[in-house]
Design goal:
The complex is a heterodimer of chains A (327) and B (294). With 327 residues, chain A is mainly alpha-helical. Chain A contains 14 helices and no strands. The radius of gyration of chain A is 24 Å and the shape is globular. In chain B, 74% of the residues lie in helices and 0% in strands. Classes of the chains: A mainly alpha (327), B mainly alpha (294).
Chain lengths: 327, 294
């Protein structure tokens, strides 16, 4: 899942701007051109409509159906009602996969975003060399999720590898992270934190839009640095923070490639890197239990859906959109 | 605004010792962070020229003994298939993906961002929803469809979605970009008698160029790094792109030839890094503007 570094705007803003343009344009448009727009619109949308029906909507409904069967790629299968879902909750692998994935989300997302915001704040001061630092910090985001980098990570965290040697200097006796189930998840957390450059660039753009006057006015009123950070920077930046938190969380739930390379389909050592998506892959394409794997996949959709919903709800109170009545 | 910013620029010119100290501290902080962040990248560069025995146990990025043997064995590839073949496979998939994304996303975004027709809003909502939808839920039925079509073990499943505008992220990016173009342009063109196809090809496509460049670079890199698609759909070694090669190499040869694998890894990362160095201004601007501009 090589999603490109995230980008996109606060959703509320996106809706507001075009609405204004529409009014002035609509009056001038004649009925003829509107019919033309209908025809052209659907012509241009044809690839997407076909694609969505065949490869998105269709497969979603199909996998929902599969999740109520015991379909096996070779043996076939029958409708079994909710049995997959009840079996899932009794499956020790499910508990392990959920635990590993949640632990990863909870550790990786905040650490990565904290690092990216901190460096973004350093990089929005007016100083020389910003372009160089920005490019250098951004670069890992492009290679981190590749198989090649996962292999490098395996070497860096191997027994007697660089991490083991470095930490031994401080009395560490846990060996390389890769062989130690207590800490092996940290390898993947660190890999994710390593890509802090992508959200950093988005934070930087957001920070540059905070008007200087706000900080200056607060400074005149005697507000200290911390005060200004909490009461000006954070609220003004909240739409961008919301966007980054949302996208990073959704992506973190879907971590696959590096986890697969580092832990294998068994999520070794001792299931400590058994990510949810890796388990789905193993169930579907190694065990060929596609019905059961579909139930797992739908559980992921539900979980991500609920988390997204909670975030949008929370955003209503927490996110501040400058220049709009705060809804 | 000018009144507020003026004193700032005046105090800036003659740099006080305190300010110089601050600047030094700033550079020191960032340089320290840089050393940590770039360590893994440097490590792989030098690991590829270290002898096998040294690679893991040598923490220092500076090699004590230099060998070029790793590269020689890397070029041999795997199971008799030379390395260039895997590069070529990766390149074909990436190039087709780029073409698909640019063509399909630009027409889809024109309809969604510039036209008004019943159903447009609902379709745009679907695009946004798929942005957040975990792709794993479609994986199994998609596989069943592709095996029914008898195209498993070809690159068809890896690129078809790109030609059908299924990459919601790029559709969204193009729509955002098109919405920023003034309406007066199409209105003037309509008065001059241009139809929608004319407007799309002669006005929108040239103006979309920055979005096209940004999306092409991201698509290329994304496809170059993609592992799950080739893992599921490609099973013959002659057809493997680089990520599959590295994974197989890691499973079969790594124990005996660690250096070869590191050299291969380094070579596989080079195109991405080169791409980035050439286009970095474009890339960073692209993410930043599409990320914040409403």
């Amino acid at each position: 899942m090589s999603a490109p570094p995230t980008a996109a705007p606060p959703a509320a803003k996106a809706g507001a701007a075009p609405a204004k343009q529409k009014k002035s344009g609509a009056k001038r448009r004649s009925a003829i051109s509107r019919r033309g727009e209908l025809l052209t619109g659907y012509t241009f949308m044809t690839p997407w409509i076909i694609g969505s029906l065949v490869f998105t909507v269709g497969p979603m409904l199909w996998s929902l159906y599969l999740s109520f069967t015991d379909y096996h790629l070779i043996l076939g299968g029958d409708f079994i009602g909710f049995d997959n879902y009840t079996a899932m909750f009794a499956d020790p692998m499910f508990a392990r996969a959920v635990k590993v994935t949640l632990l990863y989300v909870v550790l990786a997302v905040p650490l990565k975003l904290a690092a990216s915001l901190a460096v973004a704040m350093l990089l929005t001061q007016k100083r020389r060399g910003i372009g160089f630092y920005r490019a250098a910090f951004y670069m890992p985001s492009l290679i981190a999720m590749s198989v090649g980098m996962a292999l490098v990570w395996k070497a860096l965290f191997a027994a007697d590898g660089p991490q083991d040697q470095f930490m031994s200097l401080f009395g560490w006796e846990g060996g390389g992270f890769i062989g130690n189930p207590d800490v092996s998840i940290l390898m993947l957390v660190l890999l994710s934190v390593w890509t802090f450059g992508a959200p950093m660039v988005i934070f930087m753009a957001g920070l540059l839009q905070v008007p200087d006057e706000l900080h200056e006015a607060a400074e005149v009123d005697g507000a200290g640095k911390w005060h200004r950070f909490v009461h000006i920077t954070i609220p003004m930046l909240s739409p961008v923070i919301f966007f980054n938190v949302l996208m990073e969380t959704v992506h973190a739930f879907q971590m696959f490639g590096p986890a697969f390379i580092i832990g294998g389909t068994a999520g070794g050592p001792a299931w400590s890197t058994l990510f949810y998506t890796v388990r789905i892959y193993a169930l579907a394409f190694v065990d060929l239990r596609m019905g059961y794997a579909s139930a797992w996949a739908w559980m992921l959709v539900l979980a991500v859906g609920v988390v997204t919903l909670i975030m949008f709800r929370a955003a209503k109170n927490l996110v501040y959109y400058a220049g709009e009545d705060n809804k | 605004m000018t009144a507020a910013t003026a004193p700032r620029t005046i105090t800036r010119k003659p740099r006080t010792p305190a300010e110089r100290g601050k600047s030094l501290l700033w550079h020191l902080c960032l340089l320290a962070a840089l050393v940590v962040v770039l360590y893994p990248a440097f490590w792989v560069v030098t690991a590829s020229i270290k002898p096998n025995a040294d690679i893991i146990t040598d923490m220092s990025p500076i090699p004590t003994t230099i060998t070029w043997e790793n590269f020689a064995s890397a070029f041999d590839g795997l199971a008799g298939v030379p390395l260039w073949r895997f590069f070529w496979n990766s390149f074909v998939i990436a190039a087709l993906s780029v073409v698909g994304i640019v063509v399909s996303c630009s027409i889809t975004a024109y309809a969604l961002g510039r036209l008004e027709f019943p159903g447009r809003k609902a379709m745009f909502a679907v695009v946004i929803a798929t942005l957040l939808l975990p792709g794993q839920v479609m994986l199994i039925p998609q596989y069943l469809i592709f095996s029914e079509l008898d195209v498993v073990n070809t690159i068809f499943p890896l690129v078809i979605g790109k030609f059908l505008a299924l990459d919601a992220f790029f559709v969204f990016m193009y729509v955002q970009f098109l919405r920023g173009i003034p309406r007066e342009l199409d209105q003037a063109a309509t008065i001059d008698g241009a139809g929608h196809f004319r407007i799309f090809f002669s006005i929108m496509l040239p103006l979309l160029r920055p979005a096209i460049v940004t999306s092409s670079i991201f698509t290329f890199i994304g496809s170059w790094n993609d592992f799950m698609g080739p893992l599921i759909y490609l099973h013959e070694i002659e057809k493997f792109p680089l990520p599959r090669l590295l994974q197989s190499y890691n499973n079969t040869e790594a124990v005996s030839n660690y250096g070869g694998m590191m050299a291969m890894t380094l070579l596989s990362l080079v195109p991405v890094v080169l791409f980035f160095l050439v286009f970095q201004k474009f890339l960073i601007k692209g993410i930043a503007t599409s990320g914040v501009k409403g």
